[in-house]
Amino acid sequence: MASTNNSTISLFIEKFKSDFGDRKRAESFFTCGYCFHFAAILDSFGMGEIVYNAVMNHFAFYSDVDQSIYDITGCLGKMTPDWVPWEEYQKMEPTNSQVVKYCCVYKFW
């Protein structure tokens, strides 16, 4: 998508939850185990990147447009030091990032 803004992302999230059939189930599903996959969906809009919060063990999408973090629940607020771009985190913490990949991304454990 050539032009993306926070309202585009917010509208997509709301429509996604509505189309999922059960909004609470969608939030539960994408906050309890599949947050990386929802962040990847939002990343397809471009204009941002997937970020990881090791304290929360949670993935989300960072929007370059409004410098905000988004997940299935909507806007989580502005970027804080707890959120690290996933690509950067993998370089900073190679061993831990492998565990995170197997548990959260690949769902092997």
Features:
alpha+beta
Q: What is the topological layout?
A:
Elements: H1 6-20, H2 23-31, H3 35-43, E1 48-53, E2 58-63, E3 68-71, E4 74-78, E5 83-85, H4 86-92, H5 94-105
Antiparallel strand pairs: 1-2, 1-5, 2-3, 3-4
Low-confidence stretches: none
Fraction of residues in helix: 40-55%
In whole angstroms, the N-to-C terminal distance is: 34 Å
Spatial shape:
globular
Quaternary form: single chain
Whole-number total of structural domains:
1
The radius of gyration is 13 Å
The biggest beta sheet is recorded as: 5 strands, antiparallel
Structural class: alpha+beta
How many distinct helices? Answer: 5
Summarize the structure.
The protein has one domain. The protein has five helices and five strands, in the order H-H-H-E-E-E-E-E-H-H. The chain has helices spanning 6-20, 23-31, 35-43, 86-92, 94-105, and strands at 48-53, 58-63, 68-71, 74-78, 83-85.
